[in-house]
């Protein structure tokens, strides 16, 4: 069976599908990932086909407007939606080309144009999401807030947010639907159709970390994480190997694809916090170019988290879904520093799970607060014990296997 995964977003929005795609390929299927051009090498190096989508997400987030997007407010989310909406006509055309010849289309949360294309071409489709998108009374929609609005308020806000969030794309969507010979639609009608047809969504989220809410239907469920596939033949930098062996376990600090602010200033803040906490550090540069120098600090480039994190005393990160998952898998305490989008949701979840002492919003981060959180995360045994407990339970899950069993794959 020929499977196309439409994965729109940053590295963290694409990486998990390399692992899922590899498992699908091992099960005998042909797999292609449609993603932004900067991820072509990452996909092809893992033996998967690649289908290009327009827009360089790294350039967009590095722009002046992109910096405004990296906030935790509803206004920032509106800017993010407008940023994507400008590219949606070309995105629709590229998505249509990407799924040509597919037997089934799997779409990420932001890859939902693939649902319209699949409908027009008569191809089965399903959602493969990394963030909770379906309305529930159990928690508020992360698109809007992290504060509970009550069960009725949470569900109502989630329905409104997902519908309003699609309004800027309406013209592009209906242009696509017209080319496909489909009637025009509205966001409300789109979601009603998905609900009425029991369109399946598999959430690549550990049910240990976020159990499927009781008010979700059975065709929407958390099945377990999909782990990014390592680059074949990868070997660690010898400098990093030597640094890890030269002293106590260090703390990892990295903000992934986020590039919110002055890298030099942020690096100095992190170094100060590490010195105050009396800890060594490994700083991953990421898209923001985080850097720092010192006898007890090493700056590194891209390094697989599944190899690196188990060797850390704690991980400081932006709270992205993938990095959150990697830290939990490694069984180490966390200090989340969320910037935008779903990051505050995952940061709060880490605190609630007992593996993080507190959440430190990135744009209010200071050296003193970070040092205090690091001392707590590494010095209070309860955080490490809880992290190890959760890691053991996550290790027993098989998210990719659950998806393969649940899809109509022949």
From TrEMBL:
<dbReference type="InterPro" id="IPR004276">
    <property type="entry name" value="GlycoTrans_28_N"/>
</dbReference>
<keyword id="KW-0045">Antibiotic biosynthesis</keyword>
<feature type="domain" description="Glycosyltransferase family 28 N-terminal">
    <location>
        <begin position="3"/>
        <end position="124"/>
    </location>
</feature>
<feature type="domain" description="Erythromycin biosynthesis protein CIII-like C-terminal">
    <location>
        <begin position="295"/>
        <end position="393"/>
    </location>
</feature>
<protein>
    <submittedName>
        <fullName>Glycosyltransferase</fullName>
    </submittedName>
</protein>
<dbReference type="InterPro" id="IPR010610">
    <property type="entry name" value="EryCIII-like_C"/>
</dbReference>
<dbReference type="Pfam" id="PF03033">
    <property type="entry name" value="Glyco_transf_28"/>
</dbReference>
<comment type="pathway">
    <text>Antibiotic biosynthesis; vancomycin biosynthesis.</text>
</comment>
<dbReference type="InterPro" id="IPR002213">
    <property type="entry name" value="UDP_glucos_trans"/>
</dbReference>
<dbReference type="InterPro" id="IPR050426">
    <property type="entry name" value="Glycosyltransferase_28"/>
</dbReference>
<dbReference type="Pfam" id="PF06722">
    <property type="entry name" value="EryCIII-like_C"/>
</dbReference>
């Amino acid at each position: 069976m020929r499977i196309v995964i439409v994965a729109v977003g940053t590295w963290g929005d694409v990486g998990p599908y390399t692992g899922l795609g590899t498992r699908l390929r091992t099960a005998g299927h042909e797999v292609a990932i449609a993603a932004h051009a900067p991820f072509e090498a990452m996909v092809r190096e893992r033996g998967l086909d690649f289908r290009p989508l327009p827009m360089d997400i790294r350039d967009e987030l590095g722009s002046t407007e992109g910096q405004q997007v990296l906030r935790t407010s509803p206004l920032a989310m509106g800017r993010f939606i407008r940023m994507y909406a400008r590219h949606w006509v070309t995105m629709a055309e590229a998505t249509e080309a990407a799924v040509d010849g597919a037997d089934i289309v799997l779409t990420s949360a932001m890859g939902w144009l693939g649902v319209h294309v699949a409908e027009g071409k008569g191809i089965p489709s399903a959602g493969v999401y990394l963030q909770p998108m379906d309305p529930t009374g159990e928690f508020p929609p992360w698109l809007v807030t992290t504060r509970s609005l009550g069960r009725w308020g949470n569900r109502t806000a989630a329905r409104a947010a997902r519908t309003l969030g699609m309004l800027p794309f309406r013209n592009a969507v209906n242009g696509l639907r017209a080319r496909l010979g489909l009637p025009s639609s509205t966001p409300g009608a789109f979601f009603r159709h998905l609900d009425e047809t029991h369109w399946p969504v598999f959430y690549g989220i550990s049910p240990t970390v976020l159990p499927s809410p009781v008010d979700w239907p059975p065709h929407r469920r958390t099945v377990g994480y999909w782990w990014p596939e390592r680059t074949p033949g990868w070997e660690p930098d010898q400098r990093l190997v030597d640094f890890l062996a030269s002293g106590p376990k260090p703390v990892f600090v990295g903000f992934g694809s986020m590039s919110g602010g002055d890298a030099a200033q942020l690096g100095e803040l992190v170094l100060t916090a590490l010195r105050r906490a009396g800890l060594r550090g490994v700083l991953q540069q990421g898209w923001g170019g985080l850097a720092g120098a010192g006898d007890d600090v090493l700056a590194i480039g891209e390094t697989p988290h599944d190899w690196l994190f188990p060797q850390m005393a704690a991980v400081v990160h932006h709270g992205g879904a993938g990095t959150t998952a990697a830290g939990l898998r490694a069984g180490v305490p966390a200090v989340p520093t969320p910037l935008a989008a779903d990051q505050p949701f995952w940061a709060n979840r880490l605190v609630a799970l007992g593996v993080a002492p507190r959440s430190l919003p990135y744009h209010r981060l200071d050296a003193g607060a970070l040092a205090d959180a690091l001392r707590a995360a590494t010095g209070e045994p309860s955080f490490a014990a809880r992290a190890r407990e959760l890691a053991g339970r996550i290790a027993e899950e098989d998210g990719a296997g659950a998806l393969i069993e649940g899809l109509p794959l022949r």
